[in-house]
Amino acid sequence: MLQDAKKGQQPIEELCRDFGCSPATYDTWKKKYGDTTPDEAKRLRHLEKENVRLLRIVGQQRLEIEAVKEVLAKKR
């Protein structure tokens, strides 16, 4: 959609209607992905998903560590 908007053949509102999104969503995407190529945008989305997955793992490990510390503190 961003590539189509760069071509300037259709107004942004019409493009948004065709793609089924709001102009606010378009603005958000433009701010986030701006001048990236489609391949770069895919890579960025993949990296963001991987980051979320890793943060979830770290959070789970932190909870487990806290639970172990609690058990150890009760045993003393």
Task: Describe the structure in your own words.
With 76 residues, the chain is mostly helical. The chain is 83% helix and 0% strand. It has four helices and no strands. The protein starts with a helix and ends with a helix. The mean pLDDT is 88.
Short synopsis of the structure:
The protein has about 80 residues and is mostly helical. The chain contains 4 helices and no strands.
SSE arrangement:
Blueprint: H1 2-7, H2 12-19, H3 23-33, H4 38-75
Number of helix segments? Answer: 4
Q: Rough shape?
A: rod-shaped
Overall mean pLDDT: 88
Number of strands: 0
**Share of helix among residues?**
over 70%
Uncertain regions: pLDDT < 50 for 5+ in a row?
Answer: none
Structural class: mainly alpha
Give the distance, in angstroms, between the N- and C-terminal Cα atoms. 62 Å
Rg from Cα: 22 Å
**What is the string of SSEs from the N terminus onward?**
HHHH
Largest sheet: none
Share of residues in strands: under 5%
Structural features:
76 residues; mainly alpha; 4 helices; Transposase_8_domain
